[in-house]
Amino acid sequence: MAVRWKHSLFVALVAIGAAQGTQAAGVSTIENAAPGDWPSYHRDYQSNRFSPLTQINRNNVKRLSVAWVHQSGEIAAGLQGTPLAIDGVIYYTASYNKIFAVNGRTGQEIWHYFPKILDGVDKLPVGPYSRGVTVANGKLFFGTIDGRAIALDLKTGKPVWEAQLLDTLTCGCMFTSPPLAVKDKLIFGSTGGGIPTRGGGIFGLSQSSGEKLWYFDPVLEGEEHWGMNDFGESSAKYAGVGAWHVGSYDPSLDLVFWGTSNPSPWFDWASPLDGPKGYLRKSGVGARPGDNLYSSSVLAMRPDTGELVWYHQENPHDDWDLDSTLGEFVLLDRGDRKLMLHQGKGGYVYVYDRTNGKIQNVWKINKHSTYVQSIDPKTGELIGRTHPSTMKDNLYCPSIIGGRSWNPGSYNPETGVWFNSRQEICQIAKVRPERPTLDPLPGWYAGADLKWVHPPGDKAHGALDAWEPLTGKKLWSVHDDYPRISGVLSTKGGLVFSMDMKGMVYAYDAGSGTELWRFNTGSGTRGGIISYMADGEQYILVPSGIGSAVSAITAGIYPEVGDIPAGSSLFAFKVQR
Known about the structure:
The chain is mostly beta strands. The protein contains four helices and 38 strands. The strands form ten sheets. Strands 1-32-33-34-35 form a five-stranded mixed β-sheet, with no helix packed on it. A hairpin with a 5-residue loop joins strand 34 (504-509) and strand 35 (515-520). It is globular, with a radius of gyration of 22 Å.
């Protein structure tokens, strides 16, 4: 089991702290979120994406209608963020880090901030999208696509400070997701997977000044981790590991949980040796001999120092671009057990003891999954792992867009049900040696020619499913002809909201999956749906605007996807009285 301890007394200290009732303090507006607010990317530190509001419910949801629409004016890459709502004000970001504050009752703009982005960034493989902003202690924080962290005054939108953290044109890395606010710190994770450089990783900053307090490099140097490649260089030089999504925080343990991306290149063209650890082959063969630590891993860290307390590498020597940075970390307690749910890109769901990283269960969401035969539910070890070059017709499932992509699910802590999207798409990967592209700018480092295809004996499709999260028992499912790539919202009103690629937003009965309401926004979504209160009324807020690589990838299977209109709008709905 890949669990590493920095202090042998950690478990005892946790127990003592719990007995004494002590815990670290998070940001109060997140840790003790007002029912009508959505103050953080996943709303709370537990990453539930659940709204406790009940004004909109099963009985009246059919009367939902548009209250207002706000247009960002920037349709490049769509609208991929999750908006925030605090005290009736909405804060969100469009592409190129264009930030808006709008009145949550009327949609009228209060202020906006458009940073000047470094020339040349738009020629890099990633961007220009942004997944959101963070609010804490009177400031709004975000990371930019040219490698900066910026703080704005929450009331005025005026800059307070900025810090340059990345050399974006050199490393090709940037910030596409918001930071996590913890105590008086900010935790940022950069992009990196699939780009043949170094420089990205996880950063801890001061909220008050932007000072960099610590940095965690997700590439662990060492011949056993990153051997010599075919070209006679250390593969660590081109490792490209990032940590680009948003983690979770447990104040009782004072631990931040974060995921890391796949290594570079996406595919190692050398076939592994026989045996479960055949990727630990002789150095000098293929793209990246070794386990490629800490790529495709889950990390538990101290937010004040960046100290690594434990880790688990979900995919040692990731041969499929099925990384661990996406997938929310849902913190849930069952009795005296402190558990954590994490779904990796491969579609396997890991249930961890979050105090020590030990695996409690592993189960899968996908019908079509061939990259491994299974994963040991007690240890997390990959059983019967395959390599694209050994598969019939070089075909494996799921594809690099994942069993589910980064669009989050939603956990209802009152019913114990987890609602999650799914996609069933496979790909052909014909691996080949490849030199990395660094000049004039870093480019994608693939190591294979790719084609996306229907699963054998089936048609590519998507779904919205309801699960018992610890066992993987499926409670209900809604089929979709296309992948479901929006975030999911569940509410105490007995509802689940999701959106499809064509632009339709749906409300379902949380108990049965029965469709209760739908509305066509005109463009699909990649962003997160939220709920909030303004002037005593509950709203459902939906980002509309298709974008991201998923659209381009699925066009080979669904040519009509290319005809879906672009957009970048926020739609606010309420029940008309």
